Amino acid sequence: MGTDVLVLAPAGRAVRAARLVEELFEEWEAALSRFRPESELSRLNASAGLEVRVGPIVLAAVEAALDAARATAGLFDPTLLPDLVRVGYDRSFDEMGEPDSPAARPRGGGDWREIHVDRGRRTVRLPAGCGLDLGGVAKGMAVDAAIELLTATGLESALVDAGGDLRVHGLPPGGAAWHVGVAGVQHAPVLPLVRGALATSGTARRHWPQAGTPRHHLIDPRTGEPAASGLRQVTVAAGSCRAAEVAATAALVAGPLLGRGLLEHHGLAGLLVTDDGRCLAAGRWPGGETVPAA
Amino acid sequence: MRLSCSGPTVAVMSTTTDRERTRRWRDARVGVLRRRFAIGSVLAFAGLVGLASQHAVGSSKRRAGEPRAPSAATARTTFFDEGDQGFEFDDSGVATPLHEPAQTPAPAAQPTPPPVAQTGVS
């Protein structure tokens, strides 16, 4: 998933916990990476238009992605792969150079409405021409799965952090909360997280020039182009990491007003950073007020 | 000597045939306008429906005859319904308020422990 994973667990059990989480992430990566030609997701994308039998990880991820698209009225859209490729994100970010100008016109989102999932037969059929990119939900799901795995082993407290998208279980030994810093914000508030997850979507990390035009990886499904909503970063607190991750992406695409409303509508909390550096708090975000971003 | 000359008054005398032709022409014109208005209304309504459907992001691109996934767009979602599994922050005052720099904590507040993790942009 192109990221480092941090596991915090009580001393004496941390090494085993880290090994379990590493194996889990490797399993999820093998199934869901669009950059591995042999992955289940790559085979599913290559068979668009046909009914394809899939394993439990892909099935769960596709169902979650469709649920996320419905919950956000399509602001989160897992079917934007053709536009991602069109703007140059056709290989892992570390391997990207400066891509050529796009030859095709923007396609835009909405293909998720035509995806057919048969849970009983464990099959998925994508509409012809559709391509899935589950990166916007898979990492959060893997973090959630890791926490559930560690909980099932009897661990009373743990934190799993995949590149800054994290979830906690229990409380740290001797502490009343997990203290988490927020990247990209001046006077960064330290969040005392007792329960739940945090995830951030932003344009600061995965961006590149395409024939002189600045691009990033968060595509607006309404236009098929990188989102230009007036927000550069959104951090969301939710009960699960997948919910936080999806909500952060949807809010960033939606923009300051609609994005904040979306978070509050779903009972989430968040910090939205505008292009000009203003911070807008949504829901029960600690501190609540605004502060200039770095 | 002043000379004046008024222009001739010309009255068009229409015959019964002329009046009938004019009435038929007017009726035909009204009919055309009515049809245009009806077509315009239908198109305007279709436009409104189109706008409404576009409001939910990503309009359907389904072609006629293709089966629609039965539940993809209409089923009730529970994605954000987390029940008791929601998030919680510690309200005991250890968080640094957003509107104050970290260097000037409230006098009564305990010092904020260093973070054990940090969010990151993805």
Question: Can you tell me the CATH architecture of chain A?
Answer: Roll
The N- and C-terminal alpha carbons of chain A lie at a distance of: 27 Å
| Estimated helix fraction of chain B | 25-40%
- Give the CATH class of chain A: Alpha Beta
Give the strand content of chain A.
Answer: 15-25%
Question: How many strand units of chain B?
Answer: 2
Q: Give the structural class of chain B.
A: mainly alpha
> What value does the Rg of chain B take, in angstroms?
39 Å
Describe the structure.
- The complex is a heterodimer of chains A (294) and B (122).
- Chain A is an alpha+beta fold and 294 residues long.
- Chain A has one domain: T-fold, CATH 3.10.520.10.
- In chain A, 31% of the residues lie in helices and 24% in strands.
- In chain A, the strands form 4 sheets. In chain A, strands 1, 5, 6, 7, 8, 13, 14 and 15 form an 8-stranded antiparallel beta sheet that branches. Chain A has a 3-stranded antiparallel beta sheet with strand order 2-4-3, covered by helices on one side. Chain A has a two-stranded antiparallel ribbon with strand order 9-10.
- In chain A, a hairpin with a 4-residue loop joins strand 14 (269-274) and strand 15.
- The two termini of chain A are 27 Å apart.
- With 122 residues, chain B is mainly α.
- Chain B has a domain at 15-55.
- Helix content of chain B is 33%, strand content 3%.
- Chain B has 1 helix and 2 strands; from the N terminus they run αββ.
- At the A-B interface, helix 3, strand 7, strand 8, strand 13 and helix 6 of A face strand 1 and strand 2 of B.
